[in-house]
Specification:
About 20% of the residues lie in helices and about 40% in strands. By secondary structure, the protein is α+β, with helices and mostly antiparallel strands.
């Protein structure tokens, strides 16, 4: 996805999953999610113009324990 700032293209951003152009899903497989993972998701959401994002960590024993929803 092309990242635009102040009307100019400033780079490219890779999105794991974009659902219906409104929900971004960031996939991880780590022992524990941290603030850096949340920041990455929020950056992806901003690039996609999405207000809802899901951070899914497949490193948890149960996937439901590793899912965080972020709304901006």
């Amino acid at each position: 996805m092309t990242v635009v700032y102040d009307g100019e293209i400033v780079g490219e951003h890779r999105i794991d999953v974009l659902v219906e152009d409104c929900v971004t899903v960031e996939l991880k497989s780590v022992k524990e999610l941290n603030d850096q993972h949340v920041s990455q998701l929020m950056s992806t959401m901003k690039a996609a113009g999405a207000q809802v994002g899901l951070l899914a960590n497949f490193g948890e024993a149960r996937l439901i324990d590793g899912v965080r929803r972020i709304i901006i």
